Amino acid sequence: MNLLWLQSGGCGGCTMSLLCHDAGDVTGTLRAGGIELLWHPSLSEQTGAEALELLEACAEGRHALDILCIEGALLRGPAGSGRFHMLAGTGRPMIDWARRLAARARHVVAVGSCAAFGGMTSSGANPTDACGLQYDGEQAGGLLGADWRAPDGLPVINVAGCPTHPGWVVETLLGLAAGAFTAAELDALGRPRFYADKLVHHGCSRNEFYEFKASAAELSQLGCLMENLGCKGTQAHADCNTRLWNGAGSCPEGGFTCIACTAPGFEEPGHPFHQTPKLAGIPIGLPADMPKAWFVALAALSKSATPRRVRENAHADHPVVPPAVPRGGNGR
Length: 332
What we know:
- There is one protein chain.
- By secondary structure, this protein is α/β, with parallel strands linked by helices.
- It folds into 2 domains: 2-196, Rossmann fold; 198-319, Irregular (Cytochrome-c3 Hydrogenase, Chain A, domain 2).
- The chain is 26% helix and 12% strand.
- The chain is built from 11 helices and 13 strands.
- A 5-stranded parallel beta sheet has the order 2-1-3-7-11, with helices on both faces. Strands 4-8 form a two-stranded antiparallel ribbon. A two-stranded antiparallel ribbon has the order 5-6.
- A hairpin with a 2-residue loop joins strand 12 and strand 13.
- Helix 3 (48-60) packs across helix 4.
- It is elongated, with a radius of gyration of 22 Å.
């Protein structure tokens, strides 16, 4: 299968993340799975006229195009012309190229939350009228329209994240090459369910603090980051703490809060990322599938039963109270 990768309005961070794939040689991994990288603006040798001829051949149907990957938001402005982002040397806006190539591709993949939903590029006043390929924030539509479908009936596959985990991208592409993707493998926002059916909360090393509602007050502390510091791990759809980044870490592992970067609208939560909005002292952003009354009752019970070790370690930047050693040393 032939893969073409374009970069639109964004920072290129998803490509940087992709280069940190565990296997090291990303292009070799894809090739072993039956995928040939036709062209990538940062990774390919072809430039200038040679690259433009390849793009034109794909757009005209003279060269087979199986997978189109687009990284970065699509810039529709000004006034729908797309001229805020012209593809150099072509005299055409990037949005025109995206539409033409999507019409030829067997599969279209939005790499990152900018390409999926608009992401950081669409934040603020959004003067460039940035959007995703098939979503404009939470609303279906975007550049291609809500009804757009690939030849096999799939919508745009939104490998959302800011940036994406390299494993999410590679597994999605290999799944397409193996013919393993159907509509059932995508969630309600078009994200691959193999990672989007998980929560960042799953596998978090701070879960003991969460269970006892032993919360950190500052980012340098070991406690749970949800109650005070804005962590959305109990709501964010991703497997970041069970599929560690670079084989070793995640945002909470590094002392930072989860900002739910796989979701539309994460870029403008309406409050500072490091603060938890509250109503009558109760966090607004509670676990999505848990009634608030239950959470409040369980939180009060948990706090009353918090061990001294957990309570004191939650407000320290390193463990200050070790676990107790059971009598006899074997837990009996």
